[in-house]
Amino acid sequence: MIKKSMDIVDVYAWVHANKSVLEGCYVDNIYRAKYSWLIKLRCKDEVKLLKVEPGQRMHLSKIEPLHKDVDNFARYMRAHVRDMRVESLEMPWWERIVVLKTNKGGRSLVHYIEILPRGVWVITSGEGKILYASRFEEFKDRAIKPGLTYTPPPLKGLSPRDHEALRASITRGKDIVRGIVYGWGLPGYVAEEILYRAGLYEVKNVEPSKIPTSDIEKLLDVYTRLLEEAKQGRGRLVIGESGPELFTPYKPSLLVELQKKEVREYDRFDDAIDVYFGEYESLMELEARRRELEKQLENWRKLIEEQKKTIEDYKEELNRLTRVLELIYKHYNEVNEKLECAIEARRSRGWEAVKECGVSSYEQSRGLVFIEVEGVLIPLSIREPLERQVVELEKKRGELEKKIERAVEALNELEAKSKTLEIEAAKPIFSRLPPRYWYERFRWTLTRNGLLVVAGRDAPQNEYLVRRHLKDEDIFLHADVYGAPATILLRGRVEVADEDILDAAWIAACYSRGWKAGVSYVDVYWVYGSQVSKSPPSGEYLGKGAFMVYGERRYVRVPLVLGVGLRLFCDPIYGGYIKVFVGSPDSVKASSLSYVIIVPGDEELGELAKTIKRLLVEGAYRRSGVYFEVDVNEIQSALPGPSRIVEHGVGGGVAECAE
Fold first, then answer.
1. What is the CA radius of gyration of the chain?
2. How does DSSP assign 106-161, residue by residue?
3. What is the rounded distance in angstroms from the CA atom of residue 224 to the CA atom of residue 84?
4. CATH number of the domain residue 81 falls in
5. Is the pLDDT of residue 78 over 70?
6. Alpha carbon distances (Å) from 240 to 33, 56, 228, 235, 472
7. CA 33 and chain centroid, separation
8. How far is Cα 501 from Cα 509, in angstroms, rounded to an integer?
9. Are 372 and 379 in contact (CB under 8 A)?
10. How far apart are CA 376 and CA 383, in angstroms?
11. Share of residues in the chain with pLDDT > 90 (%)
12. What are phi and psi of 374, to 5 degrees?
């Protein structure tokens, strides 16, 4: 990847595209993820996720990180910014600084989000006094500290409207392309795009003073038109050999026409940015995982080498000890005579006298004499008879043999663990985070014919679904028991097959209280949306999540058996991604890479989810040859209650997405 942050044209295009989208939204919550802060916004049409990473990016996203936390900055935001209304979104200077104003009850806060290198997210009062920041720091030309008035970093960019300044500043470079980069404050690839569109790419290395005035005017005109194109809100991704290399809010004609690069187009600029940084984060995670595995492998290799050295030392000592014992046995009488002589000589006349007994040398401090046999010096204690010392030496030899045996076993275990780690490191890893769509707040599935089914997790969600999403032509389903989700088969104008209704009924049944009660089956009725009303008969009251159903009800009997699988989805915007998928066993088996089948049981949800994760990941690897990373919490959230596994295997779903 060659692009690590949004450039000035990106920021200009993004603010223009999202000004009307974000103004009027409310700050719902704030989190800290590994790479960015996440702001959940309640907007008119839906909940939106805004990712902010000072110094790099700011964009709407459908990719929600698996792990979110709350750091000090998020705590401050929760305490002081949550529930505030977004009043305005501006780019007041021709610089990568976005100004977001929020208000609640007449109290205003101003957010300066700097996408510049070493940029900071600064929150000030309406009067500009700094209240908090993503970090406090003193720079050469300004300070970010509480109580000070916020001042931006020195502004280097020239407004594209100031043509006089642009004409003068282009002479700063030693050639025309550098003149645009340094004079106009644009990155090199934007400067080259302007030159290419103006028909001046071939003279990009010519001195600015040698460029005719008419060509300078042409560059200004192309620059203006490029910015107008950027304001249209579309996005492009430039694809290289290893994945996305660049994102732009305009068509990169130079890269397409001259360099023959592959370019993907998106209706929304946010989608292009989201996909780009989603891929970037995935690569970062894979690289971090690779480094961690390499570090672990290196540690295992060191342990293996140390263990081998230990075994060699043991073997060397064993060989020495065996040789000593062989020589003692072979020359037992000779060695014994010399040792007994030395013992008596030391006792009666002192240590110097032991040399008269044929002893080569001695160590008085250790109580040893050294007797040479066939060129080998044998150390023997002068305090013990030879017979007892031989017994001790045999004992030591036996202990060494056992040590070697245990050390070899330990070495084999180390090598096996290292080999397992090498295999793990060589596995193709799929870690791309999936986009998150509106219906994933609820229970959901897709029928065998691709129709969406949604069901409430609780009474408020039941209420919301019926009020906001149930249309007259849709199909409403409900288990014929107290305590069951309002389930909707969103059909639109599509003809519905019996198997679609059955797949939807499976969700209505399995997520009812019948599962926790441990019953074998549940009856589910279905009606058209036009038969469901929130208006009670005169004089009656309907509680939250309750509805009136009029007319004929059609029933389906559903056994409480649920499929849970890993399904690969191929998205035209986000590419391939994996999700935990639930539904009828037939539907899950047919559409997933791997699956498990569960029934009501008594296994604890946390441990069961871990087991299911292992089975799904192993099954998906057998099916696709790829190791998929799955969040165990996503699996646990999909379980209807205490369960047990009755079957697992490899499914028939698509294993890879077409390019």
1. 38
2. TEEEEEEEE-STT--EEEEETT-BEEEESS-EE-SS-EE-TTSBP-PPPP-PPPTT
3. 36
4. 2.30.310.10
5. yes
6. 28, 21, 27, 17, 48
7. 10
8. 12
9. no
10. 21
11. 72
12. 50, 45
- Residues in a beta bridge with 435: 63
Which residue in this structure is represented by tokens 């660049």?
A: 246
With tokens 């998928």, the residue in question is: 581
Q: Distances in Å between the alpha carbon of 371 and those of 339, 383, 393, 397, 462?
A: 8, 15, 16, 20, 95
Closest listed residue to residue 431, CA positions, set 580, 285, 581, 635: 285
> Per the domain annotation, does 566 fall within a domain?
yes
The pTM for the full model equals: 0.75
Nearest to 174 by CA among 204, 194, 148: 204
Report which residue type is found at 189. Y
Q: Would you state the torsion angle of the CA atoms of residues 404, 406, 409, 415, taken in this order, to the nearest 10 degrees?
A: -70
Residue range 234-255, pLDDT digits in tens: 999 998 877 888 999 999 999 9
Give Cα 130 distance to the centre of its chain.
33
Structural domains in the chain (count): 5
Is 35 part of any domain? yes
The proportion of the chain whose per-residue pLDDT surpasses 70, expressed as a percent, equals 97
Q: CA-CA distance, 313 to 311, in Å (whole number)?
A: 5
Cα gap 407→314, rounded to integer Å: 9
The residue out of 543, 559, 575 marking a domain boundary is 559
Q: What is the DSSP string of 342-410?
A: HHHHHHHH-GGGGGGGT--EEETTTTEEEEEETTEEEEEETTS-HHHHHHHHHHHHHHHHHHHHHHHHH
Residues 96 and 70 in one domain: yes
Measured N-to-C along each axis, helices 332-349 and 269-330 cross at an angle, to the nearest 10 degrees, of: 80
Q: Cα–Cα distance between 256 and 536 in angstroms, integer?
A: 62
Do the domain assignments include residue 157? no
Q: For residue 11, what are its two tokens?
A: 């920021």
Is the confidence at residue 545, as pLDDT, over 70? no
Range of the domain at 554: 438-559
State the distance between the two ends of the chain, measured CA to CA, in whole angstroms. Answer: 19
Measured in degrees and rounded to the nearest 5, phi and psi for residue 656 equal -155, 155
Residue with tokens 């663990």: 417
In whole angstroms, what is the distance from residue 98 CA to residue 57 CA? 10
How far apart are the C-alpha atoms of 223 and 229, rounded to whole Å? 10
Angle between the N-to-C axes of helices 269-330 and 386-426, in degrees from 0 to 180, rounded to the nearest 10: 160
pLDDT at 102 over 70: yes
DSSP lists the bridge partners of residue 26 as: 42, 85
Calpha distance 622→421 (Å, rounded): 18
Q: Which residue has the tokens 């839906």?
A: 46
Cβ atoms 338, 372 nearer than 8 A:
no
Amino acid at 519: V
Q: Is the pLDDT of residue 2 over 80?
A: no
DSSP-assigned letter for residue 211: S
Cα–Cα dist 145/648, whole Å: 58
Determine the pLDDT at residue 589.
Answer: 96
Is 189 among the domain residues?
A: yes
Q: Residue 403 CB: number of other CB atoms within 10 A?
A: 17
Q: How far apart are CA 15 and CA 11, in angstroms?
A: 6
Q: How many residues would you count in the chain?
A: 659
CB 316 within 8 A of CB 324: no
What is the C-alpha to C-alpha distance for residues 53 and 246, in angstroms, rounded to an integer?
18
257 and 331 both lie in a single domain:
no
